[in-house]
Amino acid sequence: MNLLSLYHNVDLENRKTVLDLIEVNERAKIMDLGCSDGEFALRIAQKAKTLNIFGVEFLKEAAQRARSRGIRVCQADLNEILPLAAESFDVVHANQVLEHLSETDRFIKEVHRILKPGGYAVISTPNLAGLHNILSLVFGKQPFTAHVSNEVIVGNSLDPKCGMLHASRGEVHLRIFTPESLRELFSYHGFDVEQLIGVGYYPFPGPLASVLSRLDRIHSVYLTMKVRKAAKMI
Q: Which domain of life is it from (predicted)?
């Protein structure tokens, strides 16, 4: 199995992990930040058994495709204050978004602001401490998930994407997290961290990777976290 196939399989496993963290709530209002074409947002809504699905997407064409699927989408920059009412959503989802943002703190504050008290967010992002990144450093190569150019992917000849141009500035990784830094940053911004799960374990495939990531989440490929905003005191 080549690295691109491994990447695809880990991405599928990560999406399954996200869905496992979604609670069934027919009345839930769900916001997918960075919803792309809306395909996965609909799967999240189906898992929750709700029809109340919303999205924010920066790219105009992707936002239009999501709207064609029936998702209520606003086009906005996730680095900025969002044009969304405070305490208006029960669930916020952001998969492979956080690493692309320069205004990380503002984004997390906005997630907290738009969540209802007692609401939760599911966040997934690449793991800087992944075994594949550590081995890259041992051999003097750039970690897979840490980009050094806004134009081209360079620095790691083992990366199947090495030498490829970024399709857009939005694909560049700006902030990459370890498990400890991810947990501490969300805690700092007022969230209770309920679960932090490791997904995937390069270079190992399939079921073996699933076992290894459960035993050693610190060195997994992805970090998928469920955090909750405190309920209001009565």
A: Archaea
Instruction: Write the DSSP assignment of 44-87 as a string of letters.
Output: HHHHHT-SEEEEEESSHHHHHHHHHTT-EEEE--TTS--SS-TT
Looking only at Cα atoms, what is the longest distance across the chain? Answer: 57
User: Residue 195 has which token pair?
Assistant: 């679960």
Residues 6+ apart with CB under 8 A from 211: none
Q: Which residues touch 206 (CB under 8 Å, ≥6 apart)?
A: 9
Work out the end-to-end distance of the chain between its first and last CA atoms, rounded to an integer number of angstroms: 55
Which domains, and CATH codes, for the chain?
3-126+176-229 (3.40.50.150)
Q: Mean pLDDT in runs of 10 for the chain (234 residues)? A: 72 95 97 97 98 96 96 96 97 97 97 98 98 96 96 94 90 96 98 97 88 94 97 78
Token digits for 167? Answer: 């399709």
**Residues with Cβ within 8 Å of residue 130, at least 6 apart in sequence:** 144, 145, 202, 219, 220, 221
Q: What are the φ and ψ backbone dihedral angles of 31, each rounded to 5 degrees?
A: -115, 120
Peptide bond preceding 203 in cis form (omega within 30 of 0): yes
Kind plus residue range of the DSSP H or E element containing 135 = helix 131-138
CA distance 118 to 110: 15
